Amino acid sequence: MRRTAAWRWLPPLLAVLLGLWGLERAGADGRGGMWRDESVTWQVAHRPLGSIWELLGQVDAVHGLYYLLMQAVFQVWDGGGPATGGLWALRLPSVAATALAAAGVAAVAHRLAGERAALCSGVAYAVLPPVQMYAQEGRSYALVAAAVVWATYLMLREHWVAYATVLLLGCWLHEFAVLALLAHGVSAWRSRGWRWSAAVVVVLLLPLAVVSARQAEQQLGWLGRPGWQDWAAYGVVAVAVLLLARGAAVPRELVRVAVPLALLPPGLLMAVSLVHPWYVDRYVLYALAGLALLAGTRLAAARGWWPWLLVAALLVPFGWWSVWLRTPESRKDDVLAVAAAVRERARPGDPVLFMPSRRREWLLSSPELYGTLRDLALARTPAASHSLQGTELPTEEIWTRLVDAPRVVALLDPAGQPLDPYPREAVKRQTLASHFDLCSVDEVRGARIALYAQPGRCP
């Protein structure tokens, strides 16, 4: 019986094992963690199809296909809620996609550089800390990476119909996957098949691009231009990529595929973000496949002990990073920890105030808790308003409701975060400062929970 070559099964198996390790991101209390972007996935994907469609017409169209996929997953099994087995249902698609991407990286390397390079490249992709991070996240980025990697393989095989189909799937999962098309063009632009495929992808992506462009300010208005840290990180990756690509150890055809894939998507998005701030590194996660191809192929071709000494040295920081990624502290916040803290501090029927209003997402994934509280500023629920966080009352009504409340549980961003300048947020802050005493403030994983009471009525 013929044995299956290790490069075919070891990288995806390793990706699965790393993905399942610490999948719930449990803290010291044993409770799993979920950050706010994942909370949005959970909430939206539990809405009826018609409600999701109405939402996508207003916001988050860029994630529409992913929400529909997760809605189908949750129809089969949702684990009973994020506080029970729901985190597995939420994240397993990303684990599977990362395994698929690792297999794809190995397949690309095998075609261009042989079996040893395939094994090393696939493993390199699976162990990269950012890849591990998004393998355990209930968002679309691991799925997009898998689509781009396999589209790269199909490009090399010149299977143009399949190439266009798979890349279009990646673009509809997140439209910034279209930047991979430009990276592919560096090595494939002479091919008539590639040019036709590129045209098909662009034309069929246009409807999503038009809708999401109208939503861009609402969707990405929170982003700033790339900071020095972003440029420094890109510079480090660029230097590493160019050094790995030097010399005869790496086949030139692999260099022509891997270098543009590693550098063009993030570089172009950062350049565009100088005018339109759209850059977040996870939007181009798939670019790490290019780095893995170069690192794995270079390692496979190396002779002597020094490359393995370098790998051993990297295991220490990579190991620490990998462990940290499986803690709730590795994300910006933890909606389940916030909900647990509110549950301990609030009484049934207590007024609750979200400052800013988008932090309503901290409790929306815990409807059994949220339903016991009185949301002072809420006009229409997220489902009724076809929005992510609902709509709020006019400033006058917020003031009226607030001054009549004997006590208020306020959910706030961490200290030092910029304050939203909008009138509704300003009236919340001013009214609490002028009409209430601050009784207590507790910090909980990316949030503050403050208890306010009318003067002289703090417990």
Keywords:
2 domains, elongated, 459 residues, 61% helix, two-stranded antiparallel sheet, alpha/beta
Topology, element by element:
Blueprint (H helix, E strand, L loop, with lengths): L5 H15 L15 H10 L3 H8 L7 H13 L9 H28 L1 H13 L1 H7 L5 H17 L2 H14 L5 H10 L3 H29 L7 H17 L7 H21 L15 H14 L4 H20 L9 H11 L5 E5 L5 H4 L2 H4 L3 E2 L2 E3 L1 H4 L5 E2 L2 H9 L3 E6 L10 H13 L1 E7 L4 E6 L6
Parallel strand pairs: 1-2, 1-5
Antiparallel strand pairs: 3-4, 5-7, 6-7
Helix pairs in contact: 1-5, 1-6, 2-4, 3-4, 5-6, 5-7, 5-8, 5-14, 6-14, 8-9, 9-11, 10-13, 12-13, 12-14, 13-14, 20-21
Nutshell version of this structure?
With 459 residues, this protein is of the alpha/beta class.
Notes on the protein architecture:
The chain is an alpha/beta fold and 459 residues long. The protein has two domains: 6-330, no CATH class; 335-453, no CATH class. The protein has helices at residues 6-20, 36-45, 49-56, 64-76, 86-113, 115-127, 129-135, 141-157, 160-173, 179-188, 192-220, 228-244, 252-272, 288-301, 306-325, 335-345, 361-364, 367-370, 382-385, 395-403, 423-435; strands at 351-355, 374-375, 378-380, 391-392, 407-412, 437-443, 448-453. The strands form two sheets. It has a five-stranded mixed sheet with strand order 2-1-5-7-6, with helices on both faces. The mean pLDDT is 94.
